[in-house]
Amino acid sequence: MNAPCDKPTPRTALCRYTTHAVYYGNDDLVGDLLGNASFVDVFMKQTFGKMPTDAQRRIVDAVLVVLMEHGMTPSAIATRMIYASSPESLQAGVAAGLLAVASRFVGTMELAAALLDRIVAAGENGPAEAQQIAADYRARREAVPGFGHHLHKPDDPRAGALLQIARETGTFGARCAALERLAAEVDAATGRHITINATGAVAAVLGDIGIPARLMRGFAVLSRAAGLIAHIAEEQRDPSGRFIWDLVDRVMTFEPRAD
Asked: For the chain, how far is it from start to end, CA to CA, in angstroms?
């Protein structure tokens, strides 16, 4: 006879089904949501437990638009190459591209948000905390998460636009202020202007509407999935996968190891 299990029964508050209805939480999918709530509304309620305010909805929508497309970045290249290898599997191409949403590209708002949380948590010592963060990264000769861009100089226009939307919606709060404080310290530590990049601004505006750092990368995953579908749609119309392969094959040199 099996011993009784002392572990709690697994449970979910996200979804349930009956013979005639599907429920998202307590909402009837057909009766309450379809035609009445936007995708952003339902995503936010499913994930965070409540419908967004008008201001929060505008911030989330802006973030999703900003993160959707970054051009021929590693995620887009991976998607196109995998789709070229398996055109019968659109989802494989998207999945490959999403694996690149990480600590170096697209997903860096998570690391930036952690720094902003440190500054906010320091309270009146926040300016000193920002100065210490900038000094630490400078001493290690590492880029501060949320700062710098290889193309957008002197400033990343996306960051400025997101912070402006936060001001317009009344959601510009402690983390946006911390970002601006950290930006001043980064400039002082490096002796030159370093732009706040898009993911730095994303970390601040999402943080100020209550999104925890550990879930921010999910917004990049959600948004970039849409962008990668667009890359596959273009790949179907005008394939580039073989060109990318040939280009790398042509320029990559072979040098034997010295054994």
From this structure: 62
